[in-house]
Fold:
Amino acid sequence: MNNRNMLGYIWQKITFLGVSNDLPLDLVRRVTYTNRILFVICVVGMANFTSDYLRRLYLFASIDFTFTLLFTFFFYLNYIGLYRISFHIIILFLNFTIFILSSMSGLQTGLFLFFFPLIVISFFLIGIKEKKLLVFYSLLPIILLSVVITTDYSLLQDRPLKTEDAKFLFRETILNLIIFTGYSLYSIIDINEKIEMKLLSGTANLQAVFNNGLLNIVFLDRDMKIKNFNDLAKENAYNIIKKDIQVGDNFLELVFENDRRYFIRHFREAMKGKVIQVEENIKLLSTDLWYEMHFSPTYNDENYIDGIIFSSFDVTERKKMEINIKLAKNKAEAANFSKSHFLSSVSQGIRTPMNEVIGITGLLLEKDPRKDQVEKLKILKSSAENFLVIINDILDFNKLDSGKFELDESKFNLHHLLSTMSNFISPHAMEKRIEFITHYDENIPSILLGDSVRLSQIIMNLIGNAIKHTEKGKITFEVKLEEINLHYTHIAFSISDTGAGIDEENIDSLFENFDRAYSENRGLVSGSGLGLVITKRLLDFLNTAIFVESELGKGSKFSFTIKFKNTEETLSNRPEFNQQKLWMSENKLLKGRRLLLVEDFLINQIVVAEFLSKWEIELDIADNGLQALEKTKYQEYDIILMDLQMPEMDGYQTTKIIRSQENPKYANIPIIAMTASPESEIQEQVFEAGMNDFITKPFDPDDLFNKILKHVKNKNHST
Structure:
């Protein structure tokens, strides 16, 4: 980057210092102009400082230096976005600085001449719209100049300047005035030209969007008369109503009679300042059209609503798709219902005879059949039981697939449930000469809240799967307490076997519908193929996941964790939760209570507010006693925390005035004093003033909680 480009870059940075993309152009104009003027003033100020210092005009040199520093500070105000404050400070500062210098230096220096360009500058810094402020800032330099003239330019003059110094300052003033006025005029023209170009560019872009976009856009006035419209609106109006629209037309006459009521309603809402977005169906003779419509208010220069922008977008195709999707969904749901009803009916018809087959087979086995009949009867019973399991799997899968599945939560004893299941499972494992081992964590609470039936189904599916696919070795069922808190108990379950295991590449597809990878790895194909799928779906309903670890030839491990809700019985034998339960029950007594904190120190306000928010107490804050009295007039409080030492009115006086009120509520409201003084020094005064209790700073949160709770309870009993 060459020197010229570098200087241009720096100048751009100075000009647009503090200007952001979201600023309106009028404000951009004023900020950029201010930045340029400030820069010139700072440069001229430093030049004047140097020349005055070399001339040994030390007073004027010090004023020039201070002047330059202050204008550098105004740069900073613009940089942090305090434009409007900066504008006013600059104008006032310039006026009074020129007034002081003119009154000090006399007529000969010509410094009073700077009052005249100040009037012009005010127009650009304040803006023409601010008429009252402009009048003030135009009169101010005239008034100050009048004071300077009537006091013969010597109001603040200590001693007359030497003729040579006065001439020097006059030449300096004329040079500064030429630079200042000339550069101001140049900046005004340059900035206006640049902003005009931006406006033209922006207008052209807006016009392109206006006429080439996908929206029909119409501008309406307060009487629904058309002010402007885009080409698409004109084209669609002709296609729909066969009429050209014109500026000045009453838009309501272009709306179909059946649709006028809703249009008037939305128009009135928009005229109140609301932005309305609706979808409406326009019915023509042969077709239905759907439009997404927007009604947005427009504002004039005084920020009053002077009409609306009505825009619309044809969403007919999207609406047709939505209707078709809804129809397809309804058909699919109807078909699914028919399928579910059919499966339920068929399965019920199958279950009854199958139960009879299992029952009769069991009776025959008990009547000492011949040896050649025993094996056949066992095969018959086993096949019937397997068939019944398949029927149940299909029904469960159908329920899960249709979304009609619901959990049934109730209290149950987990240890008893698992003991019963172990007693049922053990014989099946013994039949295959497999060792079945159970590890149960004694720290698990006895009573939990959950769906015991579905938990049994999950465990039975996984253990049944393990037994089915393990030919030798053992199956280990482990139940372990992972975490317990006041609300929930997290329990981890795992079932591991020494079966054939699963290929790693097949694990991900293990829970897909009708996947047989698990069986095929072991050379088995029995069952519905739905057991693991149902297990996975059930665990999804319980908001948990199942994890599989397996190695081909060594076995598999299935594990999951379930979060059970706690009941009173769950925590009854756990002393570590008793205090927490007591605190929570007491905390509920403070929830929603309204407390007034009377405290003048901000840090104390923040600290107290932090604890009160944890206890769900609604808080109001007063900075002193006078504010507290005002707040208690219009709001009832359950308790007041009162600081003793405050400006304007202390805690003692405030409490006495509260207690002296005629309304009985002021006599009963608990007031707790907050003080940094030792207890022995203030105890008597606190109670004499009518306070109920006190707490010393810095306070212990538990102490504060207990005191608030104590007095809230006492107030409840007294009322």
Q: What stands out?
A: The chain has a mean pLDDT of 78. Residues 544 and 562 are 6 Å apart (CA to CA).
